[in-house]
Known about the structure:
By secondary structure, the chain is of the alpha/beta class.
Amino acid sequence: MALNKYMHQRNIYKQKKPNFKELAAKFDFFDAVAIKDECGRVVLDFRIPSHLSALSKALLMNDFGLNVDFPGDRLIPTVPLRLNYILWLEDLLKSKFSEPVSILDIGVGASCIYPLLGSKKNSWQFFGTESDTRNFRLAKENVEKNDLNKSIKCKLDINTSSLDVVFGDKQNTAYLDAVMANPPFFCDTSDAVGSTTCRSLKRPPPKTISSAARHESQTVGGEVYFCMRLIRDSIRYSTRVGYVYFQCENSLVCHVIRCSEIYI
């Protein structure tokens, strides 16, 4: 888990790191995978998906009252980083806190973590799209389990624009304050492998593994083409979309584009 200087100042995990011993005492599912060393310390092996999912599940339950399941063969999001994105969105949309906020999350994944966090923490309204049928089903189950059906509307999006999915109904006059995405980084398997084999010798090896399915980490044209399509689609609906908000692999911060200021 990356807890570093780039974390948002209001991120609760910047101020206080998770206490694994307390989590193990509170949650049986966390205690079941936790490793106890000879000194009584409780640690996790972040190379094991079940350890990653237990930590994310425990943090969401302990700190946000959210009950979320994470399949071991899909992307397991780290809670501190996802909370960072929500906090940056808060800063971006702070002028609208007196009004209902509506956000589209493209590719909610199996956990649907961004809509769940944003709705639970700030009472935001979310549209969420997902192209994988299994992820879509699991995301809806996580939403229903937390009684957030009225705040989060998930839609299956296969081979089309997510914005078309939301705005396709002519009777729909919705306005989106922000469109957010954490795009697949790679264009193919060789691209993904290259990102790990070309690491500088001065950099330590990664402490975690990615459990992401292929479609969650790879897309045609990689992240650059994904973001180009997202911006292009947002231009078509520029009067109905406030901001486009996304992060690329090599960026330390998220990219924000105000749709009304895009010129072509």
